[in-house]
Amino acid sequence: MADFLKRRPLVAVSFVAAVLLAVGALTFAGPCIHEDGSAAVCHAAAHAIVACGVVGAVGSLAALFLRGDKAAAAAAVVSAIAGLFAAVAPGTVFGLCMMQTMRCWTVMKPFALVCGGVLFVCALIAVIALLRKGRGRAA
Amino acid sequence: MNLKKLPLNNLSHNAGRTVGLAILVALLAFVAYGGSLVMSSLQNGIGSLEARLGADVIVAPATAKSQQDLNDILIDGVPGQFYMDASVLDEVAGIDGVEVASPQYYLSTMKAGCCSMPVQIIGFDPATDFTVQPWIERTYGGDLGLDQVVVGCNITGAPGATIKLYGVECGIVSKLEKTGTKLDNAVFATNETVRHLINEAVERGFPPDSHEDPAMRISTVQVKVADGYDPEVVAGEITLRVRGAYAVATRAMTSSVAESVSGIAGVIGVLMGVIWVLAAAVLVVVFSIAGKHRAKEFAVLRVIGASRKDLSGVVVKEAVLISALGAVAGIVAALVVVLAFNGALEAALGVPFLTPDIGTMALFAVGAFAVAMVAGPAASAVSARRLSKVDAGQVLREE
Amino acid sequence: MGDIRLETQGACKKFFRKRRDSAQYFDAVAPTDLQLAAGELVVLKGRSGSGKTTLLNMMAGLLEPSEGTVTLDGQNLYELDDAALSRLRNERFGVIPQGQTALHSLSVVQNVTLPYLMYRDDDGCESRALELLENLGIRQLADSYPSELSGGESRRVCVARALMCAPDVLFADEPTGNLDDASTQVVLEMLRSYADAGAAVLVVTHEQMAEEYADHVLKMDAGVIEARA
């Protein structure tokens, strides 16, 4: 494990970001809850963030352990896409609540932007590095 | 490889040490930049609150609850409504020192319908208004028509979209700039629109909690005081002479907010100081420990011909590179946190919060960078001095 | 290399030593007169703690004597300022210190070329470094890092580094420590041929085999150079 972390440190970071994304959206950075306990408009966005987190985590984990550089790069691409979607979807693809003072605007959206952004950037750099390495070896 | 390239090579070869030290410098830069951004945002928020309230004096019904509600609406952002007789307007206008008096009508939506939470609707009189329209003009040129609204920046919906208030689809013609105050959560409309909303609601069988006709009743009178008059004196005069009304100078309202802001700023300042002292101390210790472990390395450099100046140059150059890396990371992190989470910060601090413009932020960034670039190399100075004085013969003899 | 002459005149070194009940100076090296001339290989023997390394460090411009002088071609080394003395060390002295002293952040070939590039432009010095490594039998390790080397390999890197700038005077402190017999022979032959090429060479060692390559063998005991062994 330690060897893998050393070999692909950015993938490890993207895995942590993905896990944080999913766990955060389920807990401290979750959607708004009405007083009566009913789901607010932003719940769909929260579900999407959790899904992106899970997909990103699985992708990063695969990229961490897959032996082939190309296969690992493909898995990292999946992670990067999940990160990008998590970063931009809340408020665009999925609507949030009306007041921008609400939790979904003040905590959930920026949290998804930061974690999703980190996931995207790290996974993307990892993809480029892995592909270069693969090409270097082929050459 | 020569002595000029050696520092960068040392850093990349000892990635763990480099990252550890860079994180410490990043913490210093983060605290310096984030702290100054937050302080400046608080300062801006106060200025913005004073500017946005616009009136010198606000007149509200003389009941204790109304006073509390007024404060809730303007300062704490809790939607509410209260009314007094419209004749108060004329009485206020007649008081000596009152230059302009304009009525406002407050209405609070219920939770359901348009929004996930109650929204404050503020109706104003376009003929006399001097507090809302100047702000609307900055983003929207024309006049507000029937069922047209201007929304505070926290209300979701772009110009051109509609917002459903009491079942009426109102067109959003403009969105106000962020002020960092609770008025960012309000919807502004003419009294005519407000009356229409109430009538529609009554017709549909969902009348607002305490609806009253904006022609007969008003919530507040916004007063502009003539030159040469003290707003507090005018406010006192109004309270004394107009029955059922209580006037308050906005300066008095904002001064309580300013007090809590200065309290918060004080706490932030102390926290910044403590974190700085701790991080700087750790930085000095870490540089010093790293320096001790490197005595032999520097003795070898000395043996092959490096002067003392060369050796301290290597240490300082390493510290400068680490500091630059850490400073950039810390500043970017602070920027992300403050910009992305400014809504959460505003909610947590509970006072007006308005991030400064890009120029000011860039200036602060340069300042934080400079501070970190001084702190890192300064922390390494002890170790640079010790290492440059390394007694090569002694160190190598101790092998 | 010309007619080099490195000389100590009454050079001695006192160290301050603190004991539990007293503190006093002791002489690590008693006042010593010693000459090293071009083309000579001098072997300095003696027990551990006899002051050999201290004497070597004083002569190499690394440790200022408590009294007396060290002169190179008539110039007192310790009258030079730090920058000038450092440059002189780089240009005219080569030192092989005791133990493993290769820099960990540099590859083998970078370790060898570093002294050269400190005061000179890169004029293809790497080929000279590779040649030295070839002569020492570690050419294949040029791109390795010190942490990947054995003790013997690491010693040979230090030998190559000391020879890189073609110094007039070569100081070697236990240059053959950690080396097997075959490698010891390679290194000693190299030092001998270096002296034959006109350099002055001082070797501090326990190695019996070194005496076979020496022009003079000196023995040191308790800081005093005794009669030639």
C-alpha-based Rg of chain B, rounded: 30 Å
* CATH-level-4 superfamily name of chain C: P-loop containing nucleotide triphosphate hydrolases
Order of helices and strands of chain B: HHEHEHEEHEEEEHEEHEHHHHHH
Q: Alpha-carbon distance between the termini of chain B?
A: 26 Å
**Residue share in helices of chain B?**
55-70%
> By helix and strand content of chain C, what is the structural category?
alpha/beta
**What share of residues are in beta strands of chain B?**
5-15%
Low-confidence stretches of chain B: none
Main sheet attributes: strand count, strand direction, barrel closure of chain B: 9 strands, mixed
Mean pLDDT of chain C: 87
User: Greatest chain-chain interface?
Assistant: B-C, 29 and 33 residues
- What string gives the helices and strands of chain C in order? EEEHEEHEHHHEHEEE
> Oligomeric status of the shown chains?
heterotrimer
Principal-axes shape call of chain B: elongated
User: And the CATH topology of chain C?
Assistant: Rossmann fold
Number of discrete domains of chain C = 1
- The total count of helices of chain B amounts to 13
The residue ranges of chain C in which pLDDT falls below 50 over 5 or more consecutive positions are none
Q: What is the number of E strands of chain C?
A: 10
Short description:
The complex is a heterotrimer of chains A (139), B (399) and C (229). Chain A has 139 residues and is mainly α. Chain A has helices at 2-7, 9-26, 43-65, 69-88, 103-138.
Can you describe this structure?
In chain A, 74% of the residues lie in helices and 0% in strands. With 139 residues, chain A is mainly alpha-helical. Chain B folds into two domains: 6-47 and 257-397, no CATH class; 63-243, no CATH class. Chain B contains 13 helices and eleven strands. Chain B has a nine-stranded mixed β-sheet with strand order 6-7-5-8-4-3-10-1-11, sandwiched between helices. In chain B, a hairpin with a 2-residue loop joins strand 6 (162-165) and strand 7. In chain B, helix 8 runs parallel beside helix 12 (358-388) and helix 10 runs antiparallel to helix 12 (358-388). Chain C has 229 residues and is α/β, with parallel strands linked by helices. Chain C has a single domain (5-226), classed as P-loop containing nucleotide triphosphate hydrolases (Rossmann fold), CATH 3.40.50.300. Chain C is built from six helices and ten strands; from the N terminus they run βββαββαβαααβαβββ. Chain C has a six-stranded mixed β-sheet with strand order 6-7-8-3-9-10. A four-stranded antiparallel β-sheet of chain C has the order 2-1-4-5. The model of chain C has no long low-confidence stretch (mean pLDDT 87).
